Structures are given as structure tokens and as C-alpha cells.
Amino acid sequence: MVNPWLAMEAGADPAERTRTVRRAHAAFLADGTVAPPVRQVVADSWRRSADARASSDGVAPIELDEAALRAYRDGHPLARAMPVFRELLGSFAQDGAHLLAVCDPQGRMLWVEGHRGVRRSAERMNFVVGARWDERHAGTNAPGTALAADHAVQIFAAEHYNRQVQRWTCAAAPLHDPRTGRLLGAVDITGGDHLASPHSLALVQATARAAEVHLASGVPELGVCLSALGRDEALLVVDGERLRLGRRHSEIMVLLARHPEGLTGDQLSVLLYGEREMRPVTLRAELSRLRQLVGALLHSRPYRLSRPVETDLCAVEAELAAGEPGSALSGYPGPLLPLSEAPGVRRLRGALEERMRRALLGAGDPDLLREWSRTPWGEDDLEVWEALVEALPERSPARTAPMAAADRLRAAYGLPGGSPGTPLTARVATFTQPPRS
Prior knowledge:
There is one protein chain. This protein is an alpha+beta fold. The chain has helices spanning 14-31, 40-51, 66-74, 82-93, 116-123, 135-138, 142-149, 198-216, 247-258, 265-273, 280-294, 312-321, 325-330, 343-363, 366-373, 382-391, 400-413, 424-427; strands at residues 99-103, 109-114, 153-156, 169-176, 183-191, 224-227, 235-238, 241-244, 298-299, 304-305, 309-311. The strands form 3 sheets. A 5-stranded antiparallel β-sheet has the order 2-1-5-4-3, with helices on both faces. It has a 4-stranded mixed β-sheet with strand order 8-7-6-11. Strands 9-10 form a two-stranded antiparallel sheet. Strand 1 (99-103) and strand 2 (109-114) form a beta hairpin. Helix 4 packs antiparallel against helix 8, helix 12 (312-321) runs parallel beside helix 14 and helix 16 packs antiparallel against helix 17. The two termini are 36 Å apart. InterPro entries: GAF, GAF-like_dom_sf. It comes from Streptomyces inhibens.
């Protein structure tokens, strides 16, 4: 079976593949259709990039200046893994043909290392420290797509969404916290067409695993952790073993983690299904299947978890309670189980998002407001855009984009104009924030 994460099968002609994929890329930009030989992982990434309005010709934005970058990456968990990256990929980074890059979960480049001449060439497309290379801002690329798919991947030449990047080929693998399973970022090697081989993908995968082992060293007890923010299928980590749960099992685990005292079958049914009439056997069957996956972690009478479970939901709530909106935002990759319609999950999701918004609005930090406004769930938040305008210096050129965004949203909702900072309810009592997925 062909490995879908590899760019090319053995014996394929790189020049011919480049020509055919470039034609497919042009067709996709013209009418949104994707034809073979474009891989499914690439087609999915092109669609995500197009939906996010990523530029097909621009450069990735730089989000961290030198001072902010230095402070941020010195405290980042992946700083501990850099000796591993340099030991295993150092020869690539200094051979005059490749770059070693490491980014955070948002795709912001923290380290870009290699021969000076190769780095200068990459600088023309802003492949530099501080730049943001997630799919939303840079289109399809190995580190960005590895983060989006949570899987090691190669991206070959014309498979890149952005034409400026199509002379490069890259391979990247995601990295996870060995204790919680949460995404920490990705490690990438970037170079020429010769990287489109099984060896480069295997190399970055092995490097990522070695880095995770290094990060796990000295951790006496890993415990049980549940990550459900920004993902439709929760990640359960039990003593270092990762398990991706289905959607219904994700909802059950989130609700049971929220109620360590336990829930009766009726209580859990209401939180999962609401007022819909469900046969008790339906819930019992779901719990039976979940127990087959998690074993003794799930107890019954009442339904409860047998060990304390650390969740990313509680971690973000703790940062908000401590008055640390910046730390809370760093730990918030997105809404809780975004596609879940379970009433109990929807209440938790809405409450956390509103607490986050209020904390950011109260802090009035333009960098935090700008970061929220650049997310899919914050880009249509008029109140945040207006707060961002108010937080920026009056003569700052940076005010232009937030003011334009606020004007666009006012027009979309049929709202009258108003000076930034004026409460929305004072201008239109019936206005409500649009739903954010």
C-alpha cells in the first residue's frame, strides 16, 4: 500500500510530477477542483488554505519580533529538545542544501538553522524565526500541514499552496508533550526535490520521537490527561500511552472529567442527549465500548473516572482565574469539541469562550486582541476588533486593518458606526455576537 504521507512513490519522475501538480494547482485556484495525482492530504490542505483565504502568492506574516521571540522560545518546552534536533539533524542544517526549523503549535517559527546561503534564500519567502507558517497564514507546507493533520508529512514542490514556496520540498513531524499528549509544535527539514524520499520523512519522525523521549526523561509519573480544546476527537493520555477517542466517547470523557464525583445514567444522558428520548441501552452500549478502550479508568454506579484527570479545559480556566489571559490564550487552541451538539459540552464550550473573550477585552493588550482576532472563532468578533482599535496608539499605522475589519462587521450586521469603546448595547440593543465555530 502506498504511504499517503510520502510525496512520491518509488521511481516517480520529480520533474513530471512537478508539472502535473502545478497544472492541478492552477485548476484548483481557478475553479476549486482537485484532480489526480494530487494526494488526498494535499487536496484537504489546499481546501483548508482556500477556506482560510491564505495567499497563493504572498509571504508568511511575522508575528514575533526579536525581543518577544527570545523571551517566548527560552521558556518554550521545545527549547529542551533543541540539542536532540541539532544532534540528529545538524548535518542537514549545515550541508548547504537544507534547513532545520522548529515551530510552536500556532506555526510560529522559533528556530530556523542552516547554511547562511540557504537561509538567505528562504528569507525571501519569510521562512524566518518569528514568522507564522500554519496553513491559515502560509497555505499548505510541511510544518503547517503536520500541525493541522497531527501527522508527519512531506510536501513536494508544487504541492505547496503558495507559489513562492513551490521551489522547495520539506518534511515535518508534530511533537507532543509526553505527559499530556498536547501538541507542542513541529520539527521540519526544508530543501530541494531530493527530500521527496522515504528517508527524509522517516528521519523527521524518528527525530520527533527521540525529542519526546528526551522531554519525558525525569518525569516520575505521567498520570491521565485529556485534551479536547480545538479538536473534535479528544486525545486521552494514560501514563504516556496516547489514545484518540471517537466523538461520542470524547463527549463522555469530557463530562466525566468535569464531574469527578460521578454521574448517574439519567444525568449523563441529559448532558449528552438533552431532552431527546433515548433508550437507556443506547448509553449503556456507548459506555461499554468506552470501557473496552480505557479499561479500569471507567467505573460505574455512578459513572465516574477512577483516577484524577488533568484536562486542557481546566488548565485554561485556571490561568483565567489567576488573571493570566496571555497564558490562557497560549493554552487555547480552539473551542471545546467544536462540532459537539451535546448540551453539556455546548454549555462548557460557550462559558469558556466567553470567559476568554472577557479576559482579553478586560486586559486591553493589543497583541492578545490581535491574536484572538486572527483565529477562525475570533475573526468576526466585532467587540474585539473595536477594542483592538482602541488599544492601539491613535497615530499608529497598525490601526488601519482593525478599523477596516470593524467597519466591515458593522456593515454586515446593519449596525450604525460608533467610536471604539462605546458599548455595543448602547448603539443597538438587539445585537448579539455571531456564532463562532
